[in-house]
Write a structure and sequence with these properties.
This protein is an alpha+beta fold. It has 14 helices and 11 strands. The strands form 4 sheets. A 3-stranded antiparallel β-sheet has the order 1-2-3, with no helix packed on it. Strands 4-10-11 form a 3-stranded parallel β-sheet. It is elongated, with a radius of gyration of 44 Å. About 4% of the residues have low confidence. GO terms for molecular function: chromatin binding. It comes from Natronococcus jeotgali DSM 18795. This is Kinetochore-Ndc80 complex, subunit Spc25. Keywords: Coiled coil.
Length: 599
């Protein structure tokens, strides 16, 4: 455990320093333990960077938290879900929800564009019909002009200047119409921008109601809570090591002391064993003789404090989760507010640019209007009675050409809009695929925690049923986890949380079944249940992929034959299984195993 990186490793009472080394393939891992100020500190390069999951589900000593949680009847759900980073899952859910909203907005925009297509196509058809009609009228006007202009050669010089004026008038009118269309387009754009500005301003008012002012306070509270949690983690680890050491001291005092006593004739170990026979143990801190029941009482007190600290850590975890969620919401609100402000400034700048453009175009329109008036006056001066009919025909031809040009320009604009919309609609399938994939990812994330819980319950119930069938405990019919939900308060909110309830069914000699509690299980039955729960966590969290080891210790409460069955069962699921057994228990194993008898 020490070489793998566990925080639960301990030093012998008479040692100030110890080292564990693991050679695995071509790699070597090591960890050194030091005793400083009454606590154990570690340093080195162990196999694991973070040993939490391994300590929970791979290193199954007597003090293992998973085994102890079953023995004490603790909430098993919180323990099995501890390695799951729920904050990261919730943050990923939030990002996917934002992505899905963005895709939905783009799809809504495509739907709106698609709804515009029928009107645009109808407008295109109408413009084509109007252009065809104007071309027919132009052809007629040109024929009439040709018929009326029979003596064009003789009048060409007289009409040359007049025709130039007509050409100039037609070009000027065309420019005037183009300017009018641009002014209309700019005004429509300004109206659209002003509508968007109203929407953005309304959104800004809503965003201003957020808790930006509370962000600093929240950050400070989160830091404080995290520091409290870190302190609790350290205290919990120290308590667990102390409890473990004292339990082992009671079980085998001779293991922790060696050599000769300074003021006594016999070996220290003999004295300690003698004390154990008289229900006393030599204290490992001061060397005085202490009654075992006093140490047991101290262990119970430490265990009570240990449980209190676990509850405190759970409460702090809940509060941290709530405050981090609030902080994320405020930060997202702030980001949205900044984006809206930037967009508002951009809209304002765009409106000003377009208004300046309208002002310039208005000047152009007035100039073209004035120029047209002057040209029409000049044409009136050049017209004569003889040429009046021909000039009228020229006007008719010019007017038709001008109208055709204007209609074709509108037709081109409509055609461009239709092509642009159709090009945008080509993206719909890709957007729908992205939305479907995002929805699937969201569904997977939202159910990931439920899936882990369901898998844990399924693994425990399956292995518990299999082992009970093999072990054949008297009148013990079934042990299983019943997954239920309960309402709990988190801050000012009520939320629904999952709960794991351990159920036990026994049978009477007459075969009648009745429900029992964990407190009535024998020590052997309780130990097997704790081991199976730890195995479920080992499999559900795929611990074997990073920690291909499992350690079993303190199995003496289980009889030898059942120990052999449990070891054989666990051997199927752990790539490397290490078991500490008494010699008589080890003899019950049917197969030959690699055995270490001396350390």
């Amino acid at each position: 455990m020490a070489a793998l990186g566990s925080d639960q490793a301990s030093l012998k009472a008479d040692s100030k320093e110890g080292q564990a080394v693991l050679e695995f393939g071509e790699e070597t891992y090591q960890q050194t333990l030091h005793r400083r100020n009454g606590t154990i500190v570690t340093e080195g390069d162990p196999y694991l960077d973070n040993p939490e999951v391994a300590d929970l589900f791979a290193f199954l000593l007597e003090s293992n938290e998973a085994r102890q949680a079953v023995a004490r009847g603790d909430d098993l759900r919180d323990l099995i879900m501890r390695p799951v980073d729920t904050d990261a899952i919730k943050a990923e859910i939030q990002q996917l929800e934002q992505r899905k909203t963005q895709i939905d907005n783009e799809l809504d925009e495509l739907d709106n564009l698609e709804n515009q297509l029928p009107d645009l196509e109808a407008k295109r058809t109408r413009l084509i019909d109007e252009i065809d009609e104007l071309r027919d009228e132009l052809e007629t006007a040109e024929e009439e002009l040709e018929a009326a202009n029979t003596d064009v050669e003789t009048r060409r010089e007289e009409q040359s200047e007049l025709e130039e004026k007509f050409d100039e008038l037609r070009d000027t009118r065309s420019e005037l119409e183009r300017v009018r269309n641009r002014i209309e387009t700019e005004r429509e754009s300004i109206e659209a921008l002003e509508d968007e500005r109203d929407d953005v301003e309304a959104n800004l008012e809503e965003l201003q109601a957020g808790g930006e002012a509370n962000l600093g306070r929240l950050e400070a509270e989160i830091d404080t809570l995290q520091a409290e949690k870190d302190e609790l983690n350290e205290e919990i680890s120290q308590l667990q090591r102390t409890i473990q050491f004292n339990e082992q001291l009671l079980e085998d005092p001779g293991e922790f002391f060696g050599g000769e006593a300074d003021n006594n004739d016999g070996p220290v170990t003999d004295q300690l064993l003698s004390d154990a026979d008289s229900e006393t143990v030599t204290c490992w801190t001061c060397g005085s003789s202490v009654a075992t029941d006093q140490i047991e009482s101290t262990i119970e007190q430490l265990q009570s404090v240990y449980e209190d600290r676990l509850n405190e850590r759970s409460e702090i975890n809940d509060e941290l989760e709530e405050k981090r969620a609030t902080r994320n919401e405020i930060e997202e609100n702030r980001s949205e507010y900044q984006r809206a402000n930037r967009r508002l400034e951009s809209i304002g700048d765009e409106i000003e640019r377009r208004r300046d453009r309208i002002a310039d175009l208005t000047d152009d329109r007035e100039a073209f209007t004035k120029e047209i008036t002057e040209l029409e006056s000049e044409i009136d001066d050049l017209e004569t009675d003889d040429s009046e009919d021909i000039l009228e025909q020229h006007r008719e031809v010019n007017q038709r050409e001008f109208e055709i040009e204007r209609k074709e320009s509108k037709h081109d604009d409509v055609e461009d809009k239709i092509a642009s919309i159709e090009e945008r609609l080509d993206d719909r399938e890709g957007l729908q695929d992205r939305r479907e994939k995002t929805t699937e990812e969201l569904a997977d994330l939202r159910t990931r925690i439920d899936q882990i819980e369901d898998s844990a319950v399924e693994e425990f119930n399956e292995h518990m049923e299999s082992l009970l069938e093999i072990l054949e405990y008297s009148n013990l019919e079934r042990i299983w986890i019943d997954q239920t939900t309960r309402d709990v308060r988190e801050g000012r909110r009520k939320v629904t949380k999952s709960s794991f309830d351990l159920k036990i069914v026994r049978s009477t000699e007459e075969g009648a079944a009745y429900e029992d509690s964990i407190n009535h299980l024998s020590e052997s039955e309780r130990e097997v249940t704790g081991l199976v729960f730890a195995l479920a966590g080992y499999l559900v969290h795929d611990v074997y992929e990073t920690v291909p080891f499992m350690l079993l210790d303190s199995l003496e409460a289980i009889d030898s034959e059942r120990i052999a069955t449990v070891v054989e069962y666990f051997e199927s699921y752990a790539p490397y299984l290490t078991v500490a057994l008494l010699e008589e228990d080890a003899q019950a194993l049917e197969e030959e195993h690699e055995t270490i008898t001396t350390i």
